Amino acid sequence: MHERLKFIAAADDPTRTFVSICEQFGIKPKTGYKWLARYNAEGPSGLEEKKRAAIACPHETPDEIVDAIVALRKHRPKRGPKKLRAELMAKHPELPWPAASTIGDVLKRHGLIRPRRRRVRTMPSTQPFADCAQANDLWCVDFKGHFKLGDGTRCHPLTVTDSFSRYLIKIESLAAPRGEPVRDAFELAFREFGLPSRIRSDNGAPFASLAPGGLTALSVWWMQLGIVLERIEPGQPQQNGRHERFHRTLKFETLDEPAVTLAAQQRVFDRFRHEYNDERPHEALGQVPPARHYEPSWRPYPRELIVPSYGDDFRVRWTSNIGHFSWRARSVLTHRSLVSQPIGIRQISECIYEAWYGSVFLGYLDDRDPKPCLRRP
Description:
- The chain is of the alpha+beta class.
- The chain has four domains: about 1-45; about 65-110; about 135-290, Ribonuclease H-like superfamily/Ribonuclease H (Nucleotidyltransferase, domain 5, 2-Layer Sandwich); about 315-365, no CATH class.
- The chain has ten helices and twelve strands.
- The termini are far apart.
């Protein structure tokens, strides 16, 4: 620093050439001009030694690692950094894969990632899943919103997932959300995977209705198989939050370009189901696929259906072939889904009785009514 200040002072001597002054201080003219320029721009501080930028970064991601990340992203363009990292580590655990944040930087540098539009989100509710401790404790069912296919028809995707493992039990392309094709899909699922303990649905058809107890032919069949019904509250989709989140993934992965026909769309769904269950890492499962956490139920599909039974404090009335039962010598209507089924009736006050089908409350009977009917609370 002191020698450089002497050089600056000597450079002002008009009787000497600049080259001779540089030779006196043992530097090249190029260096002398650099020192003068720094001094004129920054003053004495400009003559201090500058730290050199590193020629190479020791922490830079190797080119072969970058190439593998970019190649996998192009092969799976809808996978994020976390899932890409999990898949890369599973395929090549011997390589030093960088953190998910670094993988995200690599994707950004190569133009393979776009910032997501921020959305206002409500606090998630986990209460409905507090007692879901193992596979097949709870299956969730719903219809993903319908959409138009290439041939102009509508597709109504029926989806069934295991809440504990996130395993995709079924995804079926249906022409309409009717009870019979839904029952057919569930029968295939029950024969392949066994029976769950509970099924959770919303209050739409064919899972529920405005009939007593909200029953439908489908839900009565589930009950006769020994499955407990669960329905979320109207307007509360977060009570089936895991299934709703799955629908977002389904839409993102498969519905950008709908197929031409129902059969073609089903092939798309079948490929997605295999990838989702067996290959796609799931963040909530420690970045492993759902198949690693799922196993079929120990309850097989039965040959005979279960008839509900009631305690000693109930009176039992059997419905007719059109869903009516007799009470006080009068006919009371239930629902066509309860044909030839036992209805349990229990007295709760002098004139008021409760009517049940198994564990489902159907309504109240009042002996003071001139025409008895099932009244809702």
